[in-house]
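Below sits the subject:

***
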Amino acid sequence: MTTLPRQRGLTEQAADAAIDTACRLLRLPSIRHEFSEIADRAVKDQMTYRGFLAELLMAECDDRARRRSERRIKAAGFPREKSLRAFDFDANPNIDAATIHTLASCEWIKKSQPLCLIGDSGTGKSHMLIALGTEAAMKGYRVRYTLATKLVNELVEAADEKQLNKTIARYGRVDLLCIDELGYMELDRHGAELLFQVLTEREEKNSVAIASNESFGGWTKTFTDPRLCAAIVDRLTFNGTIIETGTDSYRLASTRARAEEPAKSS
């Protein structure tokens, strides 16, 4: 059992060393790194002992919350960083900023509702999908991002290896499953049925958010069985939010605008 020597009248150097040792033993890294700065501020601001203790503990709590958010974002498997703050709503008026910021509250995830982002390439679907997924992770939800084809391939491999139920259960447990690029490639019946099993596992229990370049009417090219296609659309739209991001690529427009700027300045 490790004990720390306790005595009155410690020098500043000895007190710092004791605090450092105690924080290591108690696993309080934020307090260990910040106590000196907070102590100096406490003296300057004439904080009470209680106020000083509150500052120390809140610093530790805030840093732990930040680290948990970072772990959840990393576990989600996003291919790149995207935020709502970085999205140019003026460049794509089809996407209503108020609606997106309402979604960022994550109430729809709390209610296990789906979200569909439908529009052409370059209209901000993936940006919104990743950004809203990131917001959910920051608010404490377990999130997983995947491409539709990657998910189907993983399910097919799991079925071949007799691990399908385990894989479906793993995808069923996360609070929000983000499926990107749904509709880019045709899926055979077996792959579509496996994807349907994942959606059924999550139905009205956990949220699914998808991004697709095809309107629902065009999904028969991805899911060639009409009845299965209708069932999948039903799973992804019931009590959900559908956002149509349009047909004009704001990404292409932004590239053109940047290219024109030097010409105008010259």
In short: The longest strand covers residues 176-182. The CA atoms of residues 70 and 138 lie 8 Å apart.
